[in-house]
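Hi support team,

I've been running sequence recovery on a batch of backbones for a student project. Most finish fine, but this one hangs at about 90% for roughly twenty minutes before it completes. I'm not sure whether the input is malformed or the queue is just slow. I've pasted the structure tokens below so you can try to reproduce it. Let me know if you need the job ID as well.

Thanks,
M.K.
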């Protein structure tokens, strides 16, 4: 991993529904990886095009993540881990997320990659948002807080409503593979414990590089409405599922807790 505290990641998002019919799509995106534990270095990355905590054509705002109430992100993360009974000395903390583009952002899921002081990845926090303005966090760790590697599978019970075409039931399986310089974050959703095949498969594969204005400008010019397009594509794909008579589920009540830890739900 490069020493830079801010990475530009260009890549693709894949989504596939496998039952009762196959529905698959892939689209290009760009996102950021930020060393949240180094805010001073991130602030020095501000330019005429990119702004860290300030208005620019492309920007990052802490208020789009964590508690959304002004709490510093590292404080929020520390409290979230402690509340989940996850204890280790924090090292590098990377957040992979979409930036604001022309002031707008929607992150279906942002990933916090939490390392210890030795550089080992010890926790993955999936920060999930739905299109109904609700959010939830899944704190994922390996058994006995073992390092998370390319072959580690992190399972967690599904407790939060995301798609109106899926029940709040079953479990997710998360995998992170950062080999070959192309990080791949995958989530498989199993709605039925008796099924060997997941109902949904999603993944984002990116190519990180230190953020440079020229490269960011190229990404912006290629996808000037990228974040708005994320929301638009969600609704277009939902319409296609509805046209194919996928069963619609109303929005259920939120889970009691805003954070779910996979400690008791490892598969």
């Amino acid at each position: 991993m490069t020493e830079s505290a801010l990475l530009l990641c260009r890549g693709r998002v894949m989504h596939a529904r496998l039952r009762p019919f196959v529905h698959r799509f892939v689209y290009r995106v760009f996102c950021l990886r930020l060393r949240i534990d180094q805010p001073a270095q991130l602030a020095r990355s501000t330019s005429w095009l990119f702004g860290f905590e300030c208005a620019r054509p492309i920007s990052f705002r802490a208020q789009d993540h964590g508690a959304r109430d002004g709490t510093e992100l590292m404080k929020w993360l520390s409290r979230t881990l402690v509340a989940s009974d996850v204890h280790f000395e924090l090292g590098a903390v990377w957040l992979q997320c979409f930036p604001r583009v022309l002031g707008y952002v929607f992150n279906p899921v942002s990933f916090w990659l939490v390392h210890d002081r030795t550089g080992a990845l010890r926790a993955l926090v999936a920060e999930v948002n739905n299109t109904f303005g609700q959010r939830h966090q899944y704190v994922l760790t390996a058994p006995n807080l073992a390092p998370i590697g390319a072959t580690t599978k992190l399972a967690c019970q599904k407790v939060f409503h995301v798609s109106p075409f899926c029940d709040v039931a079953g479990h997710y399986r998360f995998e992170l593979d950062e080999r070959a310089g192309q990080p791949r974050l995958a989530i498989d959703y199993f709605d039925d414990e008796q099924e060997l095949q997941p109902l949904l498969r999603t993944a984002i594969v990116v190519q990180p590089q230190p953020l440079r204005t020229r490269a960011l400008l190229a990404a912006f010019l290629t996808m000037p409405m990228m974040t708005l397009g994320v929301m638009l594509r969600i609704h277009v794909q939902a319409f296609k599922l509805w046209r194919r008579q996928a069963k619609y589920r109303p929005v259920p009540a939120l889970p009691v807790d805003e954070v779910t830890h996979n400690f008791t739900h490892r598969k």
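--
Follow-up from support: It reproduced on our side and the slowdown came from queue contention, not your input. Residues 50 and 56 are 6 Å apart (CA to CA). No action needed from you.
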